[in-house]
Amino acid sequence: MDSSSSDDEYIETEKEVFTAECLFCDSNDLELETIFDHIKTAHGIDFLDDCHRNNLDSYQFIKLVNFLRKNGKKPDDFSKILQEKLFDYEEFLKPSIQDDYLLMFDFEGEVSPESIDIEKEIMIKPEIEIIKSLSSLSKDELLILVKNMMQKFKKTKQSLLDIVNFISANDSNVTQIDNVESSKSNLVTTLNVEHDQSYIDSYSHYSIHHQMLSDKTRTLSYQDAILENDSFFRNKTVLDIGCGVGVLSLFAAKAGAKIVVAVDQSDIIKNAQRIIWENKMEDKIKTVKGKLEQLDFAKLQLPEKYDIIVSEWMGYFLLFEGMLDTVLFARNHLLSDRGVLLPDRCKLFISAFSDCSIYEKYIDFWNDVYGFNMSSIVPDVISEAIVESIRPENICSSIDKISDINISDCSIHSVSKIESDFELKFNNDSTIHGLVGWFDCNFESMSKLIILSTSPFSEPTHWKQTIFLFKEPIIIKSGQTISGKILITKDVSNPRGLKIIFKIESNQSGTFAYSMN
């Protein structure tokens, strides 16, 4: 029989061999299956075992390989690089050399011995032969195979989404990237109560409401927007989203609203109900406990359309906690045709700051902790945005607006990913310790304009400002600028969290990534 036409043709096909260069010497053409044996024999490093003991994931494995390629590190440095996570920065997702097949290595794909041969056999066969192979497996073998492939899929999907975000922030030629996952899956509106319980519970205790009510700038801005525009509220239907203890509902009722529906998911709604009764507002204010997106207003015998939707939804750096998703859902489904939102416009700003005390508090602190060097924690510190108050005199550059959101007509997806260019100008020599962000909220639909600002130049609020520390201070001369791009996205694993990436493209170039969770 002609072997070229045999059903067993796939057996005759030679397996493609991928090779790569050693990470610590000039040896090349090493097969992926043996490269780590070479590293162990030639350089005394059990590479994979060391990576696993340091709890690296496949995402960090890629960064480590690119870091070693770029910096040409010696074997003696490897332990320090791993322990201090010197490689764990978004910039090292970009391949350091072309066609580096070591990046294809399935670091997290090591599976139980009984399933390795099964999976390898199936993966190299054509589709018709895969069906034959699967039919010959026992139930237990199939379960092992499915379990391992599902684990790989979940890990690969998350890594791929992180890489996509990185590429979109670092490649000016990338204008659009196909959705790797349904865009709806990362929205707060789709979270079920079980997955969102810790967030809900955080608003059940009185302490967080005490903090917010004690913020006079925040509370008085809402009070002024409502009571100084009482003619606008008279005989109107009002929806208060995330009502907490009900202060905004009380303002609206006092302004003459016909009916106010106060909604909250947390148990604080019980306190709100008692407060409403104590203030004899129960005829005007109705409380509802539940996730707004799942409420049946008709079944609850409540209005299905509202003239005014009011909510204090803003989180740190405006978008943290993702409550804007719920407000926009309500706008799309519950706001009347000529209805208004309060607030209805929000703006995000960034600037640079110089403050040695903040740098010493968060960075230098770890260099000497009761006589011990703990500086290995610093990469973790600078990977997270920090909520702190910045003194006005510590703002050392111009201010740039990076987003202007019209809540009345923006889409949910447009605020799930915000991209902007920025440019910061310096009129004096400065030592920059990081960037700082804040927001303003405008109540523009009222006859009297009210602006709630969290700027360092305004009265302090509980939102403070959000700072993004540099690992090392940057020295800037008068007349210089720092320019680049900023990308703000939802955290892939937590829709209420944020990922913020700054790509600085001026003479102080670099990519800086931060998270808020």
Automatic annotation (TrEMBL):
Q: Which InterPro entries match?
A: ANM3-like_C2H2_Zf, Arg_MeTrfase, PRMT_dom, SAM-dependent_MTases_sf, Znf_C2H2_sf
GO biological process terms, alphabetically, are:
methylation
Q: Where in the cell is it found?
A: Cytoplasm, Cytosol
This enzyme catalyses: L-arginyl-[protein] + S-adenosyl-L-methionine = N(omega)-methyl-L-arginyl-[protein] + S-adenosyl-L-homocysteine + H(+); L-arginyl-[protein] + 2 S-adenosyl-L-methionine = N(omega),N(omega)-dimethyl-L-arginyl-[protein] + 2 S-adenosyl-L-homocysteine + 2 H(+)
Pfam families recorded: ANM3_C2H2_Zf (PF21137), PrmA (PF06325), PRMT_C (PF22528)
Decide whether keyword Hydrolase is in the record: no
Main localization, broad class: cytoplasm
Determine the domain of life of the protein's source. Answer: Eukaryota
**Which GO MF terms are attached to this record?**
histone methyltransferase activity; protein-arginine omega-N asymmetric methyltransferase activity; zinc ion binding
Against CDD domains, the record matches this protein to: AdoMet_MTases
Q: EC number(s) of the enzyme?
A: 2.1.1.319
Return the GO cellular component terms, semicolon-separated.
Answer: cytosol; nucleus
User: Keywords assigned by UniProt?
Assistant: Cytoplasm, Metal-binding, Methyltransferase, S-adenosyl-L-methionine, Transferase, Zinc, Zinc-finger
All copies of domain Protein arginine N-methyltransferase, residue ranges: 344-503
Q: What is this protein called?
A: type I protein arginine methyltransferase
- The source organism is Sarcoptes scabiei (Itch mite)
